[in-house]
Amino acid sequence: MKKKIRKVLVVILSLVFLGSLTMLLFQWKDYRAGEEIYAQAEQAAKQSPSEAKPAPEEPQPQENPDETEVILQEISVAALQEISSAVVGWIHIPDTMLSYPLVQGEDNSYYLDHAWNGQVTSVGSIFMDCRCAPDFTDFNTIIYGHRMRNGSMFASLKYYNKLTYWEEHPLVYIKDGEMLRRYEIFAAYETPVRACTYETGVTDEASRQAVIDFAVEHSDIDTGIVPEVTDRIVTLSTCTGDGYDTRWVVQAVERPAS
Length: 258
Prior knowledge:
Number of strands: 8
Number of helices: 5
CATH class: Mainly Beta
CATH superfamily: Sortase
Helix content: 25-40%
Radius of gyration: 21 Å
Strand content: 15-25%
CATH architecture: Beta Barrel
Structural class: alpha+beta
Order of helices and strands: HHHEEEEHEEHEE
Distance between the termini: 77 Å
Largest sheet: 8 strands, mixed, barrel
């Protein structure tokens, strides 16, 4: 009797192991497909608009911050827009894996499981809140991305809970057409999804100050940077890996590009 039970347990455990292995293989395949999609995006962005035909290419290593503005001049947002009209820019944090096309959809769900070119993929896209102005003129521009287990998309944002990481990666760049926008990161924290962090269309000074105060007070790191109500900020939002009630955000304030 005991031998039969052991045999049954062995069979069950074997099936569980094979099922888990199969899921991991499918996940790896999906991640690999996502990497190829965004390698194509980088290739297409470095062509002139009339030549933009994506082809697979291995991801290139990131450059240091001093070279970033020169490197991003090679990115043609117009070339990507010939492939997808949803593209509004390119977002980049130096010396990280975070360097992707930035898109905006008609809602905030489509690009959770679609790539920048509309291809279905679990890695999704880096996308702007559909309520925000696509030209970055809002006080608070909200941008979403998945926290992928392979370190892609917005996964690197989790490291901003350490001041040392912020010191090494303090800037966010967004190529908006021919304009290059430079942002200084000032706060990083976990927040409820209904917090003022996610308010859009904020125009009065009192509400803007409330958003700034909330960010500074809740930040896990003290950067010493405090935006003014007349500034423009970006809020980079991703999941925490611990439920759906809160999100991990990194916020940055726009500064003149050097």
